[in-house]
Amino acid sequence: xxxxxxxxxxxxxxxxxxxxxxxxxxxxxxxxxxxxxxxxxxxxxxxxxxxxxxxxxxxxxxxxxxxxxxxxxxxxxxxxxxxxxxxxxxxxxxxxxxxxxxxxxxxxxxxxxxxxxxxxxxxxxxxxxxxxxxxxxxxxxxxxxxxxxxxxxxxxxxxxxxxxxxxxxxxxxxxxxxxxxxxxxxxxxxxxxxxxxxxxxxxxxxxxxxxxxxxxxxxxxxxxxxxxxxxxxxxxxxxxxxxxxxxxxxxxxxxx
Length: 256
What we know:
Layout: H1 11-25, E1 30-32, E2 39-40, H2 45-56, E3 60-66, E4 73-80, E5 83-87, E6 95-97, E7 107-109, H3 110-116, H4 128-138, E8 143-152, E9 160-163, E10 168-171, H5 176-192, H6 196-211, H7 218-232, H8 244-255
Parallel strand pairs: 3-8
Antiparallel strand pairs: 1-7, 2-8, 3-7, 4-5, 6-8, 9-10
Helix pairs in contact: 5-7, 6-7
């Protein structure tokens, strides 16, 4: 085992980028990544993923991620046309192509890293995994989630709140630190990958969550829109601003 001391907090994005860079320097042909709060369901997870990758000629393979409290419930959903799948039992395919939740247990071919580069460290956390997957798929690499391979990680479902009469859901993390990066980075990805369908739906989410309530939070809406716009304008080289008073306004809506 090689431990790399960076001397400062690089965030998830910077940490994975630094580790991947080191692996390439050491001549790795495959690179496996994992969060510090994730736990493989078996000790053979990596070898199982590698076997599937080689037998199917996939360049990136990932396990499904299940909740620690309920291993029959996914921590992060998969898309099936216009719906989201959260139940493990509803996954009918052995491989879900072009969908993966990085970096929890994900196995990358070194060809990917040599071609598209490393995760964007400027994103720090929250959104770096989506940006990297978009880049990989756009470059033509074959990716997939192996539904028989499992890793356990805290669920993102706990951060979801109903919006627009319950038709939509909005993600509101439990800390100011996560919220400001997630909102800014979402705006950045919307612009970079021309996901203007995201923008329309996100705007509806923010309007309904912050304004369509008995006591509207114009301040919360303004703060969120400002962070989102900051990302769309490409301002991702420094930590986004969100003071404690502003966060308390937003956080109060999570429990109201």
